[in-house]
Amino acid sequence: MKNNNNPLSPHLQIYSWQISSLLSIAHRIVGVINILAITLICFWTLSLLLGENSYLTTKIFLESFLGKFIVIFLCWTFSFHILNEIRHLIWDLGYGFDLKVSKITGVLALVGSFVFTILFYLIGKNIF
Amino acid sequence: MVQFNLPQNSKIEVGKYYKDITNSKNLKKVNVYRWDPSTGKNPQVDTFEVDMDNCGPKVLDILFKIKNEIDPSLTFRRSCAHGVCGSCAMNIDGVNTLACIKSHTDINGDLNVYPLPHLKVLKDLIGDLTTLYKQYESIKPWLETKQTGEEKTEIKQTQKDREKLDGYYECILCACCSTSCPSYWWNGDKYLGPAVLLQAYRWINDSRDGDKKARLKKVADELKLYRCHTIMNCTNSCPKGLNPAKAIGSIKKMLATS
User: Fold this and answer.
1) Which A residues, 88 through 107, put their C-beta within 8 Å of a C-beta on chain B?
2) Does B137 lie in the same domain as B120?
3) Which stretches of B71-120 are DSSP H helices?
4) Does 1.20.1300.10 match the CATH number of domain A21-124?
5) For residue range B147-199, what is the model confidence (pLDDT) as tens digits?
C-alpha cells in the first residue's frame, strides 16, 4: 500500500516513560558521559606527570565548587553504569526478565548508584 | 534514521470540542486522535465530553458511545471485544494496550487515545501494519518438516516440550509491543521488533519443527535481532501479559551458546 503522504502517528511525544525505558536511555547517556570523563581523568594523571605546578592548577579546579560537582557527578555516573551493566549481564545470562524482577533490579541499580556515590565521597573524605 | 520530531504533515493540531448535551453530572473528557485522509489537513485531537453514567466499563465502550451518539465518523478497528483478536490495539493513556480489556476507571483525569505509535495512519485510530505483517511472514510462522504430506502419522510432542511454548503461543499479534519499542520506531524497516521475534522464538522452540538451525541463522543479524537493547517497553505493554523481552533474550542466549 502506498501511503507516503499519510501522517506518522505520534511516538515519543505521547508514550509514557516506564522505569525500564528511563533507565535504558539513562544508561546510554551516562555511557557517553563516562567516555568524556575518562578524558578528564587522563588530563588529571597527565598533570601529575608534568610536575607540581600543573598539578596544582588541576587541583585548584577540582577543589572549586564546579570541580567538586563534576567529580561527585562522575562518581554517580560510573556507579550507575556499572550497576546497570551488571543488570544487563544478568539479562544476557537469561535471568531477570520477569516484569516485577526487572523493575526491582532497576530501582536497586538506581538507589545503589546513589549509595555508591555517597560511599565514594565518604571514602574520599577519609571518614572510615 | 532517528527522527525524534514528527514530520511536518503529522504535527497534531487542536481539533473540535464536543460539549455534553445530556446534562450529565458524571463527565469524562476523552481526547481522541483524528485524521481524515479526504481532507488533506493535519491530524488533530478532538475532545469529547462523555456521560459516564450511561457507559460501559471499558475504553472500547467509550469509543463506541462516541461513535454511536456523538460522531459516527470516528474510525477504529475492533472485532471480538474480549481481548482475543488484537484488533483494537491502540495507545491509551500513554501505553499501548487493547481498548477492549482496558478499564477506564484505571485512568484518572482525561482519557487520551492515540493510534499505535510510529505507524503511517490510515484513518483516525487505524495504523498501517503492513511492514509488521511482512516481517511476520519472513520468519515462516508455520512448521517446517521433512514430511511430504503422504505420512499417515501425526507429529507427536511430549507434554514437556509443549510446555516450552507456554507464554509464547498465546501471542495474538496485536502489535502493542512492537509499536511500543523505541528501537522499532527508529529501525522498524530492518529490526524485526518484539512481536515478530517472540513468534520467531515460538517456532525455534517448537520440538516438532525441523528447521531450527536455519531459523536461528536467519534471525542472527545485527539489525534484525540485536537492535533489542532490553528497554522492556514491550513487556510493559503486552495486554496478554507475555514477555517478548525474555523471548528475545532467549534467542540471543541460544545464539551465544550454539
Assistant:
1) 88, 91-94, 97-99, 102
2) no
3) none
4) yes
5) 888 888 888 999 999 999 999 999 999 999 999 999 999 999 999 999 999 99
